[in-house]
Amino acid sequence: MEEESDNRKINNSFLRDHNYATEADIISTVEFNSTGELLATGDKGGRVVVFQREQESKSQPQRRGEYNVYSTFQSHEPEFDYLKSLEIEEKINKIRWLPQQNAAYFLLSTNDKTVKLWKISERDKRPEGYNLKDEDGRIRDPSTITSLRCSITQVPVLRPMDLMVEATPRRVFSNGHTYHINSISVNSDYETYMSTDDLRINLWHLEITNRSFTVFLDIVDIKPANMEELTEVITAAEFHPHQCNTFVYSSSKGSIRLCDMRAAALCDNHSKCFPPTSQKHFFEEPEDPSNRSFFSEIISSISDVKFSHSGRYLMTRDYLTVKVWDLNMESKPLETYQVHDYLRSKLCSLYENDCIFDKFECVWNGSDSMIMTGSYNNFFRMFDRNTKRDVTLEASRENSKPRAVLKPRKVCVGGKRRKDEISVDSLDFSKKILHTTWHPSENIIAVAATNNLYIFQDKRPLAGITLIGLERTRRSSPSECGQSAGEGTCHSHSAFITERSPQPP
């Protein structure tokens, strides 16, 4: 990509103190809601932190876009399956927002086995005057409260109080999966959602928790009679953004299947498949025999699949590339973007340290004209589909100073290395960007780098990227929290409440 002047600047960032960071502090998912006003993150400690966007102020217009902590709560706790003698981690695998219908917000969060529906609401008034206490503050005899002898019976009234944000579990969807849940997706009918594990996809109704409808039977319920014959697993699934009957799922073999639930109550057949002689909708790019190697099957496994906002395209991420597919052309991908092709020579060492099994996510921008995905060394890549330009940026603590310039990074494969380049041998594979999300209508992105969260604002696509602020929150002591928690995520296990003082007019 050609060099050009830019103004990528950083306002602030949500950073957790490395002296206190633990495995539980590592961010495992990040997701904007449908309006972009809220941003939720989940971590390996089972906690969910919700950030709210700062409202526009005439006195401080530069603060528009900054995200402050809105609510934090413990979504999942560690459990133990006594029947199978297995520990169930509290790690949050996915978070998905439901469209806002009233003043409250709803989101789905899942660990390996259980999906929960959470309601996040505000309360700034409290009821008083229930006639339970007398004038001296002593508890009254209940038998006298409604008797004629009590002449001071009053109607309860609402009194103003400090604004409180409460997170309460409304539904718990459990016992639906034998294997680990890897993805959840809300249907466009807003009544159902699906949860996906390695071998099965279940369809749930948001109002029914005691049973699920098995979406697939023979083909997607791919558990063989003999587990030694298992050749692939399901890696991700998502509903079509507009057609409530259509969804897609990907597999570890690098294939993508599009399904139509109108075909049958149990989708034992896909709506279409390729090659065209079949009856299944099947997207898979034939492999070049000259590139065949021991690692071919591993790096072809799809870690993420996303519909475009228009519903016309599919985007998939495997280990080395991002591919865009047209739903009307299944023979080959419409576009292929190399994310870190310089790692081909490192596949052996990446296999030995298990990095080759990392699952990177990919996201669209609001207009489907740009895509983004992560890489190693805290690098993340952005591709412009119209101009075919791309850029590599780094999310790091060194670049988190206010108004610091965020410069493109380049990786040198061999030979002489320029001053502004980094050698492929110097990449830190312990620092990786696995989870990213893009604001649904603006050029704002959120990037999770291990236990740090960065939010960037792209003034001009691929030309001006600014990191906008997240308010750093006070770290409570372990005695206050009941555990050692990362900065900005500390809370009480017994009450999922975050207090906020009313903002001055």
TrEMBL record:
It comes from the Eukaryota. InterPro entries: PP2A_PR55, PP2A_PR55_CS, WD40/YVTN_repeat-like_dom_sf, WD40_repeat_dom_sf, WD40_rpt. Residues 474-505 are annotated as: Disordered. Coiled coil: none annotated. GO terms for cellular component: protein phosphatase type 2A complex. Keywords: Repeat, WD repeat. GO terms for molecular function: protein phosphatase regulator activity. PANTHER family: PROTEIN PHOSPHATASE PP2A REGULATORY SUBUNIT B (PTHR11871). Belongs to the phosphatase 2A regulatory subunit B family. PP2A consists of a common heterodimeric core enzyme, composed of a 36 kDa catalytic subunit (subunit C) and a 65 kDa constant regulatory subunit (PR65 or subunit A), that associates with a variety of regulatory subunits. This is Serine/threonine-protein phosphatase 2A 55 kDa regulatory subunit B. It comes from Hemibagrus guttatus.
